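Hi all, long-time lurker, first post. I run a small reading group and we've been trying to get comfortable going from sequence to structure in the token notation. Rather than ask abstract questions, I figured I'd post a concrete chain and ask someone more experienced to write out its structure so we can walk through it together at our next meeting. Sequence below, copied exactly:
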Amino acid sequence: CMCHVLSFFPDLQVPVNNLKSNLLKLINIREFSKESLFCDPTISFILPSMICTYCNRFVDMDLLRDPQLVARDWKCLYCNTPYNKDLIQNRLIQMVNRQSVSYQLQDLFCKKCKTIKESN
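-- Answer (accepted) --
Happy to help. Here is the structure in token form:
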């Protein structure tokens, strides 16, 4: 991961490639194998079916990986109208509330006998 981050600096590209090659040799992985490729460790959070209030198009918004949203440019991809942030905030709050309610309503199981707690 550090090699990937450092490789963004043009003046460090050659030393970083050498470092990566040496590190991969230490752990017995070939330099061009699938195991040596960088995979993004960040999670993704998709807010499904957000509607643009101007053009009425549906978009699944990836709040953590979409470069436009990360740069705080919250505009529709089709009509370039700013999204209503209150609607987005309300959708997020609804999702958290649904998760909270489903957690609270789950049944409690006894670890020993595997039965559901009756006073629940």
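A couple of things your group might point at:
Strands lie at 46-51, 58-62.
The mean pLDDT is 86.
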